[in-house]
Amino acid sequence: MPRLADHGQRRRQIAEAVWRIASARGLEDVSLRKVAAEAGVSLRLVQYYFGTRDDLLLGALEILNADAGDSVRAGTGPDEDATPREVLRAMLVGMLPVDDGRRTRYLVHLAYFVRSLSDPGLASAVSAAPPELGRLTADLLAWGRDRGEVAPDLELLPEAELLLSSVDGLQTSIILGQRTPEAAIALIDHQLMRLFSLANVAT
Prior knowledge:
It contains eleven helices and no strands.
């Protein structure tokens, strides 16, 4: 007997079809039939795994958010020799849309954001930042403070949120062609140099 397809792989295959359509033409162009054609599966299979169109949109977003969370975790370890600044830099640079995969993810999130403005069912899923990025960034700054690399009186959470907001803006500027990836990374380095201002003194 042929091996049954893994359910998680099938869901991802269908979700990736949603992402391709959304990044190219927006969520308004997503339908069960178009997604089935894009994924190369039957309409019945899409309905089996996701049910309605609304369930499909939400399910594809949840998989996208899980991917984003995995990407953040991959950027923060494991590397026993990495400094707090290096770990934070890897995480922030990893958020920039500098390759096809991350560019698609950004455009899909943008399409979902526009849709969520008029769809309360999507709003909570869209606003869920993976995985509590503000707290994670603050924790990395706290680690730097404990090592004597970050000023002891730095307000960690506000600085973390400002840093993430800056990266949000850099993402948009790269997509619009207003800034090159190299220029965006240089600005991240500039911000980190300011935050980790005591690193050279500590070493």
